[in-house]
TrEMBL record:
PANTHER family: INTERFERON-RELATED DEVELOPMENTAL REGULATOR (PTHR12354), INTERFERON-RELATED DEVELOPMENTAL REGULATOR 1 (PTHR12354:SF1). Residues 35-332 form the Interferon-related developmental regulator N-terminal domain. This is Interferon-related developmental regulator N-terminal domain-containing protein. Belongs to the IFRD family. It holds the Pfam family IFRD. It comes from the Eukaryota. Residues 420-433 have a biased composition (Basic residues). Residues 394-403 have a biased composition (Polar residues). It comes from Callosobruchus maculatus. Residues 377-431 form the Interferon-related developmental regulator C-terminal domain.
Length: 433
């Protein structure tokens, strides 16, 4: 998949407002545009910019707390609205301390929506779960969230009675959460096998024919392959042969290459990406990794890189040719086009298929706001090995002051509890007389 598609969100976060808590356009704008709130406060109530920002932050957190409460309301559409607005807010603002203080309540509501909600509610809940994991990063609570939500996501992902688009959402959410939570490699491999059992329906039939699958099913298979690809980036190069040539499983390079014959663009491109990742990992361990297969597959890749079939849409042909040119160049010459991502005063270099894949999925989650998280989010800086602290001038007041305000709130809560206990004891003593 080319990186020129990574930030094209296609309006993924643009949802219509409906009934429920805090779903008017005025409320949503107020929640998500923290900068304008800060500006209003600075004009009317505070001369110190830091004071204005603190006031705006408090207002933002109050609105977000109301949205969290709204996730438990009776109206299904209201719950969806609250989840979607929380996703928008948490994508645009890095605020892990606020979420950590409330993650149990948030996850309880997400789990309920995944189990009992309709299709739209399940999709919104799965998306929110992923964003929460991005926010909390390396914190222990991320692993707790993963363990809590994995069973229900896995059940829906494998349930053939669930709509294909919801199963696709579950594939994406579960692989993203597995990637972000840093779970054991054994769990990663197991999930890869479960994903492969889904997209294996796109392998060639016993007679060598291409299976006739619907567009909806193709979207599911492409999502499962893409999720498999992400998890592959976590595998040690020394173990790659065991993953793709496991005799107990159907997975093999030959089987993966069959997916290149699919009539569906998304399946072909995801399969091509899988081959590139496999060869990258394999060659990191053994420079002569699968040389014979590389020669055999090159002709198929050349055909896809120069595809001019008129029965394919012009946009699809262009997208496919660009992607498979990069894949072919890597398979034949072991070169990856270097892409530089500038954010603030820093630059991220994407010079491997692994980095490109990881950046892609984070762009799919965060959209244009990924630059904010590359600057402030410790998890993303760790994933991409961005050394050193970010330039302080690039960090907004919100991020700088959030931890200190959380510390003060915790201290005040402890003091209030101590006073309450002390007063209770004094009342007990007075009652003795």
């Amino acid at each position: 998949m080319g990186l020129n598609q990574f930030s094209d969100r296609n309006g993924r976060h643009q949802h219509e407002n409906g009934g429920g808590s805090l779903n008017s356009s005025e409320d949503e704008s107020y929640i998500l545009d923290n900068a304008s709130v800060a500006s209003n406060f600075s004009d009317t109530t505070a001369e110190d910019p830091d004071d204005a920002a603190a006031l705006a932050d408090d207002q933002l957190e109050e609105k977000l707390s109301e949205l969290i409460d709204g996730m438990a309301q009776k109206s299904s559409q209201g719950r969806v609205n609250c989840q979607e607005q929380l996703v928008k807010a948490f994508v645009k603002k890095y605020m892990p301390m606020f979420i950590k203080e409330r993650y149990f309540t948030i996850c309880d509501n997400i789990e309920r929506s995944l189990k009992k909600g309709g299709g739209a509610e399940k999709a919104a809940a799965a998306e929110l779960a992923t964003v929460i994991c991005v926010q909390l990063g390396n914190d222990d609570s991320t692993e707790e969230i993963y363990k809590l939500l994995k069973p229900v996501l896995l059940t829906m992902m494998c349930d053939t009675s669930v709509a294909a688009n919801i199963r696709a959402k579950c594939c994406t959410a579960l692989s993203n959460m597995t990637f972000l939570s840093g779970c054991e490699i054994g769990d990663v491999i197991l999930l890869m096998h479960q994903l492969e059992s889904i997209f294996s329906a796109s392998y060639l039939k016993g007679d060598g024919g291409v299976p006739n699958i619907t567009v909806e099913t193709a979207v599911l298979h492409a999502a499962a392959i893409s999720a498999w690809n992400l998890l592959l980036t976590l595998v040690n190069p020394a173990d790659i042969d065991a993953v793709i040539n496991n005799e107990a499983k159907r997975m093999s390079l030959d089987k993966l290459s069959e997916l290149l014959e699919s009539i569906h663009l998304e399946v072909r491109m995801s399969a091509g990406e899988a081959l590139a990742l496999i060869f990258e990992l394999g060659r990191n361990y053994d420079e002569a990794f699968e040389e014979d297969f590389a020669m055999d597959i090159s002709e198929t890749l050349k055909q896809l890189a120069t595809d001019s079939h008129k029965y394919r849409a012009k946009k699809d042909r262009k997208q496919q040719r660009a992607t498979f040119r990069d894949i072919l160049q890597f398979i034949e010459n072991d070169t990856v086009p270097e892409i530089q991502v500038k954010f603030g005063k820093e630059v991220l270099v994407l010079d491997t298929w692994t980095r490109r894949k990881q950046y892609e999925i984070l762009c799919n989650i965060l959209g244009p706001s990924i630059n904010i998280h590359l600057t402030e989010n410790e998890l993303l800086r760790d994933i991409f090995e961005i050394v050193g602290p970010p330039p302080t001038t690039d960090i907004p007041t919100y991020a700088q002051s959030q931890q200190e305000r959380s510390r003060k709130r915790a201290l005040n809560a402890a003091n209030n509890k101590a006073r309450t206990i002390s007063r209770g004891k004094n009342r007990d003593k007075r009652s003795d007389f």
